[in-house]
Amino acid sequence: MVTVLHLGVILAVLSAALTKEDIKVSCLKDSVSIAWRIQASLVPYAARIFLGNCKPSHFDVLPTGEGDVLFNYQFDQCRFKKRMKGKYIIFENELAFRPQPRTKPAAFVLTIKCVAKRPDHWVPQFLNPGAGSSEARGGLVFHMALLNAELKGIAESNIIPLGSFMPIWAAVDQKSHQPLLLLMEECIAATTPKLYRDSQVYPLITKQGCLVDSLEGNSVFLPRYHSSSIILYLQSFRFGLGKELYIHCKLVVWDPDHLDRTKKACHYSKKSGSWELLDSPEKSSICSCCASNCMTRSRRHIDSESEGLSYRSVVGPVIIVDQSGQEAQDTKTGSISTVV
After folding, report:
1. Residue 168's pLDDT is what?
2. Can you say whether residue 175 is alpha, beta or left, with left for phi > 0 and alpha for psi between -120 and 50 degrees?
3. What is the pTM of this model?
4. CB 22 within 8 A of CB 68
């Protein structure tokens, strides 16, 4: 009991010696610099000061007995959390004094936040090759994954209530390529991870970029934050209800300045009663073919042109479940077709 009391007294003294006024934070382009002058009583415990999971990068004991604790780290170190807000990226971490093991609460915690303008080429942390499926072709790397409801990361659950939304994200790594526009040329839902000739499927996107699922339901393409990625905000449906479903898509990259009837991302707007082009609404006339048949090029032309510019990717399994009883009767059903 005496030992615990002494420890409590020590922690109280140490905590009282910590003040935010002694901490100076400098946010740089891709890193942060933190200088913390600690009192002499804290110097023996300087190794218990952390930025995220990082220890001080430098420590000096001053002639006065005080100490200068310095942190100089990149934002991709020390477990910085990154999130996007409009045109800005917010980097957050915690500066903490932990005189006891990590299982115990920190004696002092200060949130470190840096805000930077989002560069055009930036891709959020959750959009990485390890999140969801990724494939490479022709020097390009394609990704596709199911996002959470907040669109801030990969979904933690694959159980989707009937009528709710499934944000399907796809992206392509541009690397040294000229600016690329990523399109979902075709997407279907199926109950198998591979498609077979007799597979039962539910059409989502057809006619080289027409989101036909938006006709009956509320599925849309969400506004882009970058041309090299796209989010299909897909309303869940009755097809394959309660079974494992897989979303099969053909992803295509294209010149952002040359959209036409064969290279587009169109969804139906119930408000306007017409088809709208995601990237340039003023050019929505190229989506008019979604109501009939879109012009196609010769098979030979398509095959030669798509080499290295497209890839078929799959997300799943997802399981759509009916949790709303009678209300589910009003949910769209859509048509079902067979792969031929």
Report:
1. 92
2. left
3. 0.55
4. no
Cα dihedral 158, 125, 229, 176 in deg (nearest 10): -140
Q: How many Cβ atoms are within 10 Å of 6's Cβ, its own excluded?
A: 10
Distance of CA 128 to the CA centre of its chain: 8
Under the phi-then-psi rule, with left for phi > 0, alpha for psi from -120 to 50, and beta for the rest, what region is 244?
beta
Distance CA 135, CA 129 (A): 9
pLDDT tier, 295 (very low <50, low <70, confident <90, very high otherwise) = low
Distance from C-alpha of 148 to C-alpha of 169, rounded to nearest angstrom: 10
Query: Pairing relation of β-strands 81-85 and 140-146?
Result: unpaired
Terminal alpha carbon distance of the chain: 77
Q: Across-strand partners of 35?
A: 24, 70
Query: Quick one: tokens of 15?
Result: 């905590």
Beta partners for residue 253, in sequence order: 182
- DSSP conformation letters of 173-240: E-TTSPP-EEEEEEEEEESSSS--TT-EEEEEEBTTTEEGGGTTS--EEPPPSSTTEEEEEEEP-STT
Q: Which helix (H) or strand (E) holds 314?
A: strand 310-321
